[in-house]
């Protein structure tokens, strides 16, 4: 079992508060991804879980055991670093054996575990090589292998794909997903890349400024983002955010007119932010169409479709997915229609700058 409970976790370095109170419950065998912009505290949180830094306040439990003061080597948690942190003078076998020996395992057991891990990671032909004789992807696999021979309950991976080239990334990503299934433990994976997060995770923790913005499945985050930060962080190309004023069933946008909508938010606030994804809008050159008026800034032809970027009356730039055949030169006046049922409503007061 590897169920994790973090309650009110805070971390400060000297006088700088980096984590402001993290509450998370991670289930046994879950693949959880921490995602967020650089500097938001993802690695710090991972290091606290691994025991490489101390928790300033709050509680961390693994199953029913309080882990705050447990030494890293006794947690049953293994971490794979972004830099791999392999010992350059040791061969692959020795790199994998080192941590297992520190755990006090018998020689035969170490051998057995290395045999298993190296087969699982297809490292068996490379056991006598030194790290410098390996490709980036192979080094990555050794770093993972070294973690696996410890048979951890929890595997932590810190930006494991960041040193690999684009072609290798998707291969290694698949490999990591497979490993997670085969090992049957709990995995926590850190990345700043929302596409990686969406494709790998059972559940995603979206972090920003040392806080959790939302914790949910990829589908929940995409379909029901809790706030404008999550709304614009998840999904590519980004969701557009528009400041609108509501007057009964009408949403007015400064300088662009108004649209009537069939579905409204539950609150009766007047100042709202609406979020609309690129495929929930259409662009028309027929100026009698009901919608927000604007003019084309540029278009991006992507083969299957074309993205049309339109500047609205209040200066907001929105991206709309259109058919590939669309041909709209810059400055063409257009009208944007919005699918009512696909509008996400947010309070203006909580809009991220
Ligand atoms: P992320 O992994 O999301 O990029 P980090 O957890 O590495 O973010 O860092 C979060 C913040 O904590 C950053 O502002 C970083 O400068 C600060 N930080 C991280 N480690 C230390 C440290 N050892 N001493 C001081 N500040 C640190």
Automatic annotation (TrEMBL):
CDD domains listed in its UniProt record: ABC_MalK_N (cd03301)
GO MF: ABC-type maltose transporter activity; ATP binding; ATP hydrolysis activity
Domain ABC transporter: 4-234
GO cellular component: ATP-binding cassette (ABC) transporter complex, substrate-binding subunit-containing; maltose transport complex
Compartments where found: Cell inner membrane
Protein name: Alpha-glucosides ABC transporter, ATP-binding protein
SMART domains: AAA
Gene3D superfamilies per the UniProt record, alphabetical: 2.40.50.100, Nucleic acid-binding proteins (2.40.50.140), P-loop containing nucleotide triphosphate hydrolases (3.40.50.300)
Sequence intervals crossing the membrane: none
Family: Belongs to the ABC transporter superfamily.
Coiled-coil segments on the chain, per record: none
Membrane topology of this protein: Peripheral membrane protein
């Amino acid at each position: 079992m590897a169920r994790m409970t973090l309650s009110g976790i805070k971390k400060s370095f000297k006088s700088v508060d980096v984590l402001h109170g993290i509450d998370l419950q991670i289930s046994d065998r879950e693949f959880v991804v921490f995602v967020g912009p650089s500097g938001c505290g993802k690695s710090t949180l991972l290091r606290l879980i691994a025991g490489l830094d101390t928790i300033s306040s709050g509680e961390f439990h693994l199953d029913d055991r309080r882990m705050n003061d447990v030494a890293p080597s006794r947690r049953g948690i293994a971490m794979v670093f972004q830099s791999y942190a392999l010992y350059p003078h040791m061969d692959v076998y020795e790199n994998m054996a080192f941590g297992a020996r520190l755990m006090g395992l018998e020689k035969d057991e170490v051998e057995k575990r290395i045999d298993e891990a190296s087969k699982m990671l297809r490292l068996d032909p490379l056991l006598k090589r030194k790290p410098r004789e390996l490709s980036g992807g192979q080094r990555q696999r050794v770093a993972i292998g070294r973690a696996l021979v410890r048979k951890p309950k929890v595997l932590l991976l810190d930006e494991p794909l960041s040193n690999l080239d684009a072609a290798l990334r998707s291969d290694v990503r698949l490999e990591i997903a497979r490993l997670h299934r085969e090992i049957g433990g709990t995995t926590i994976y850190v990345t700043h890349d929302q596409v990686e997060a969406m494709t790998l995770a059972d559940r995603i923790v979206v972090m920003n400024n040392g806080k959790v913005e939302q914790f949910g499945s990829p589908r929940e985050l995409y379909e029901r983002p809790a706030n404008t930060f999550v709304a614009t962080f998840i999904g590519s190309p980004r969701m557009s955010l528009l400041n609108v004023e509501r007057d009964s069933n009408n949403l007015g946008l400064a300088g662009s007119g108004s649209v009537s909508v069939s579905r409204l938010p539950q609150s009766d606030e007047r100042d709202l932010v609406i979020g609309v994804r690129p495929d929930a809008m259409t662009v028309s050159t027929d100026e009698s169409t009901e919608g927000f008026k604007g003019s084309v800034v540029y278009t991006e032809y992507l083969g299957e479709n074309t993205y049309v970027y339109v500047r609205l009356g209040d200066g907001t730039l929105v991206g709309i997915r259109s058919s590939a055949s669309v041909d709209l030169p810059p400055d063409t006046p257009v009208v944007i229609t919005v699918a009512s049922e696909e509008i996400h409503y947010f309070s203006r007061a909580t809009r991220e700058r």
